[in-house]
Design a protein that fits this description.
The chain has helices at about 15-30, 45, 60, 100-105, 120-130, 155-175, 190-200, 215-225, 265-275, 300-315, 335-340, 350-360; strands spanning about 1-10, 35-40, 55, 85, 90-95, 110-115, 135-140, 180-185, 205, 230-235, 250, 260, 280-285, 320-325, 330-335. By secondary structure, the chain is α/β, with parallel strands linked by helices.
Length: about 375
Amino acid sequence: MKKILVSTGGGDCPGLNAVIRGIVKASQHDKEEYEVWGSIEAFNGILEVPARLVRLDNAAVAGIHVKGGTIIRTTNRGNPLKFPTQQEDGSWTTIDRTQELIDKIKAAGFDAVISIGGDGSQKISKALFDNGLNVIGVPKTIDNDLSATDYTFGFNTAVQITTDSFDKLVTTAESHNRVMIMEVMGRDAGWIALHTAIAGGAEICLIPELPYHFNKVVDAINERYNGGTGFVNVVIAEGAKAINGTVTGKAAKDAGDDHIKLGGVGNLLRAQLESSGVEAQIRTTILGHTQRGGTPIAFDRILASAMGTRAFEMVKNQEFGKMVALRNNDLIAVSLAEATDTYNTVSLDHYLLKTARSLGTAFCD
């Protein structure tokens, strides 16, 4: 009997459950005998005493592919390389629990780990593999910021959510002759904003890769507004910033979470536009975590299911230290080193950027 441990780390994402189901279903259909277990809240489950693990069999995963979230839960405060630990005086610090984690996984009899996560989680996967653990990675993030794969599952669901919301804002903007600013997620990558701008027909799109000139934003609004008879729809990525500006966000308050919590750039832009004397009424919508939740669309269910079954196949073939990747409509295995080498941002010659410009979308760069 061989044992596989499954972990979902980082932010939640539509399609996580479909991956878990794919792994379990593939293992149950295999001629060899496998047990699949889930570690609750990423690797926290295996590190805790007693360990919080759950057996994942056909009954446990029945029908979960249509559900958002993850049945084994997740966290962004469980990095074993920098694990949050409270000291005797009540203050918090971080310690390296990598070897302890590896020892516990091996002591529990697991032959392999399938780590489902984004850029940060796969960097952890690489560190664990480099220290002797049999790890397979599965790329998960709504941000689509892993360059080794054409798409990460969850991204297209997030784009569908943002586009549906943007469509609704277009009609109310037109009805009131307003400027509507919609802020979307994506961290330092502008993929969600760019796709939404094209799908929704945005007049202005502001992304991290192209710092914007504020005066050009004002000019684009005034030209479209046309003395009170027009309307403007703006999509802005949470990581967007003005020329010579900085991103808008705050340091995380939770111990062990070293991310800057991005958010608020839409409201900042609105305040600046109002202060500059823009005539139109301006309203802001921040979609926030609605982009992470809910039922995955068919594309992501299919991709996640395929990635789950491929991950199991990689375990069987002992292709450790690698990550599943979608390339040219095929699922391949790439090294974790390659998967985490380059952060996937919108290149300045990308065809979608050219498409948006040709459609008249202003990036104000």
